[in-house]
Specification:
alpha+beta
């Protein structure tokens, strides 16, 4: 049984950017609609709260995502509010060439 491992810390930034990209439309709608109906304090507080929530969830989801190799299987545990487990047989990944670098594989070199 191997030790639980985490993704590289740069995945936190990638996850936060992805979630902010998904939340940009609601933030813009709150700002536009809020200018007409709600006081200016809420125009700043709601988008700020959404951004802070996104950053916190990105960090917590990175902390909660772990994987390990054990007995020919890749075991993944993830989930912020609900813990989920995934098990994948390593034999299923034999179609991927391990000897090539990722950029060489993408560029078909």
């Amino acid at each position: 049984m191997s030790k639980k491992k985490r993704l590289h810390p740069i995945s936190v930034v990638a996850n936060i950017v992805k979630q902010l990209k998904d939340a940009i439309l609601p933030i813009i709608l709150v700002i536009i609609v809020g200018n007409k109906t709600i006081s200016s304090m809420w125009d700043i507080a709601v988008p700020f709260a959404i951004i802070i929530y996104t950053i916190v969830i990105g960090i917590v989801s990175w902390i909660r995502f772990t994987y390990r190799l054990e007995e020919g299987e890749l075991r993944i545990e993830y989930g912020v509010f609900v813990r989920k487990n995934g098990t994948f047989l390593l034999n299923a990944f034999k179609a991927f060439p391990y000897h090539k670098a990722f950029c060489k594989e993408c560029l078909e070199l």
